Amino acid sequence: MNPNFEKQSTLKTEIMKAKLKLSPIFIVGFFLVLISFSLFMIFRQMDTNDIEGYSFICFIIAAAYGGYSIANYFAYKKKEGYNGNHFVWVLSLFSISCFCLNLDFQIFSELVLGVSIILILFHLALVVHVFRHNVPKYLVTFNYLIVGVGATIVLFYSLFMVPLWGIGFIGMILFGLTIHVYIPFVLFLVALILFFKAKRTYYDNISFSIGASLPLIAVVILIYWNAQIADSMHRKSAEILTGQTSSLPDWVELSQRMPNNYFTERILKSGLLYEDELLSNWGWNSIGSFDEMKKNDPVLAVAMLLRPDLNLSDKARINILNTSFNTRHLSRRKLWRGDNLSTSEVLTNIRLYPDYRIAYTEKIISIKNSSSWQRNQQEALYSFKLPEGSTATSLSLWINGVEEKSRLSTRKKADSAYTTIVGVERRDPSILHWQEGNIVTIAVFPCTPAENRRFKLGYTSPMKFENGKLYYEAEHITGPPIKACRESVLLRIKDDKAFHPIGLKNFDSKSINEYIYTGRGCKQIAFSIKSPPLSEESFLFDGEAYKVSPIAYELQDINIQTVYMDVNSHWTKREYDNILKMCADKKVFIYDDKLITIESQASSALFRSVVEKNYSLFPFHFIPDAESSIVITKSNYISPNIDELKESEFGKNLIVYLLNMTESINVINLGGELSPYLETLKQFDCFNYMEGNIGDLKEIIENNQIKRIVKTSNTVYIPKAEMQISMDSNLQHGGQGNEHLMRLYAYNSIIQKAGAAYFGDKDARIEELVPIAEKAFITSPVSSLIVLETIADYERFGIEENKNSLGNASANSSGAVPEPHEWVLIILALSIVLYFSYRKKIQWILLRK
To answer: What is the value of pTM for the model shown?
Structure first.
C-alpha cells in the first residue's frame, strides 16, 4: 500500500475528529463576549464620575463564566469528545474586563488606535484558531501572523506587570480583581501553547515568526533613531565645549539636523503625548504638556525603557515638535480640558465679490460635549490657517440661544478679560487672537453636554489672481475632531453677470450665481472663476474713500554684486551648480552657522553639509548692502516662528536690523512655498519678493534688472491678487464700493507699520495702530475680538463699545439686503443645522402629540 495514501487517510481522520462541536457553553460564551464588549464601549463614552461601580459588571461576567468553565472542565474533561475551546471566550472576557476596570481605576492610558486594533484582531485570531480546520489554509497561515504580532504585544505588557505580581497574588486571594495583572502573561502563554501544539505547515511557521518579529523590529528602529538624536545632541555639546556655537538656540540646530521622520516624532512625543512607561499613571488621567490626554503605546514604552537618556527638556522637545511636526495647535494655551469635545456641525457662508477680487467667508460651528456628566465644562480651541493676506472681521457666540457679537480691543486687554473669567468664574466668553503664519485662534468656554455650543467666525480674503482667473482658497481648521461633522455650504457670487465656477464639486446650482452643498465631513473648498475688470467704485467711510486698482510695476536697474544662497534639504545639486555658474563673477555666500564664501574647489563639500538641514534660517541682518544683493531661497512650511526666536541672540539681532532697515531685501523664491519664518518677514513688507525658476533668476542676473512695485503714499499692495487699495482722505462722497476694501487696507497698513516692532516692544505702537484696527474692525498683531456675557463684564474690564467703526462683518454687509431666493437658502441651511441640533427634542414632542 502507498505510504503517502496512509498518511493522507490518517490526517483526514484526525481532521474529522477535530471538527468543532458548538457546545452550549461555547455559544453562551460568544454572546457574553458581545454583551461585555458592548458594555465596555458604552462605559468608555461615560464621564469618569459616572463609571464608578459599572465597570465591575464586566468583571462579574468574566469571573462567572470563567468559574463555570473551570468547573465544567473538571467535571467533563475525561468525557469522550470534550474540548476546551470555550476557554478562548474566558480570555476574551477577562481582557475586556481589564480595559473596563481601567476606566475606573486607570493603570494605563488609552491605547493608541493601532494597538487597539491589534489586540482586537489577536483575540479574533484565537477564535479563528479554534476553527482552523474549517477555514481555508491561506487564512490559517495569515491567522498565525496576527497571533505572532499579538503575542509579542501582550508579552510587552506582561513585562511591565511583573512588579505587580506579588501584590496581585495577595489581592487575588482577598478580592479577586488583581487577577487582571496576570492576564497579559496568560494570553502570551496561550498563544505559544496553541502555536506549538497545532499541526503547522512551513508557511505557518514563517508567518508566526514574521508576526512576532514586527513589534521587536519597531522597537529596534525606535532605539536606532533615538541613538541618532542622541548623537546629534552629543555633537552639539562638543561644539559648545570647543566654543563653536552659533547665535541660534540649541533646539533649533537640533531640529535642523535630526532625522525628520515618523520615528523621531514618536520619540520626541514620548512623555508628552505618549506614556514613556506603560504603568505611569496609577489612577490618574494623564494630561501631557500639550494639554491632551496621553496615549499608551507599548512598543514605544519598551523602546524608551531601553534607550539612552536624551537629556532634552520638555520645552525644547515641544519647540522641535512645533517646528518640524506641526503641533503648534496642541501646544497653545488652554485653561480647561477639551477631551470630550467634537465638532458636530459647520455652516459655511461664502460671498464672492469678483470685481473687487475679495471673498468673505463665514463659518458657524457647533461644538458637542459627549460627557454624560451634565455639569461637565470644557474649553474648545480652534486654529484657522487662513489664506494669505486674510484677516478675521467678525466673531459671535450664542449665549442662551441668542447671537452675541464681539467687541474689538487690544490683544492684552482682551486676553486679560478672558483668562480672568475662564480661570475663576462660570461665565460665557469667547476670544479670537491673531497668530503668526496667517493663523487665528478661537477659544470658546464653557462647552457643556446640556446643549451644543455655537460660535461664528467671519474673515475677509483677497482672491488669488492668475492668468485671468480668480481662485478661492479655503481655510484649514484644526480643533475638536471635525472629520465626521455635518456641513452645509452656501456660495453666492455677488455680480449681475453669470459665473460658472471651475472645480466646484458636489454643489447644486439653485439659481444664477448661487450654489449649495450639504454632506458629511468638513469640505475643503477650492475653485476658480473668470476674473472681471476691477471695479471703479469707491467705498466711503468717515470722510475717507477706498478704491481698488491694478498694481503698477516698473523695471528697476540694479547692480547685483553679492548673491546669498539660502540652502537646505529642499535644494537639488543641479540648482546649486547652475546658480554658481551664472554667478561666477559675483560674490556668492552660503550660510552654515556663519556666512561662508563659496570657493569652487570646496563648493560640493559645503553643499553636502548644508543640504542636510531640514530647514534654514537665513540671517538677513548679516547683509551689509541690501540694494546690491539678492537672496535665493527655497523651502517648505517648516521653521520656527520669529516669536520663538526673539529671546536668542539671532532673534535680537534680526529684530534690531528690521527696525532700522531702510531698503527692502531682494528675495527670489525658487519654490512655491515659504517657511513660517520667511512668510512672516514677507508679510511685514521686509522683502522685495519675487517667485520664479532658474530661468527667471538668470534673466535678473544677466540684465541687472528687477521688477518692483511702484509705491505711493496711502496705498497698500496685495501682490497675490495683483491689486492695490488706495485711501483718499479728502473725498466727502463715494460710490457703492465694498466695505471689505477698507478692512483689507487697514489690515495691510497695520501689518506693514507694526513690522518688527511686534516682536520687539509690542506696546510701542499700540496707541497708534489700535484706532486703525478699531475703525475697520479687524484682528491684527495688536487687536483681538472678544465676546463677553453681559454689558457689565465689558465695563468691568474696560472694553468699550466700538464707535465710529464698521463693526462685525456679515455675509450681507455693504448695505446689501438678501433677495427672496437668498433668504430661502439661508433658512434652509439653518433649518438643517437646527433640526440636527434638537432632533431628539423634536421627535419627542411629535411622539407626545
So the answer is: 0.82
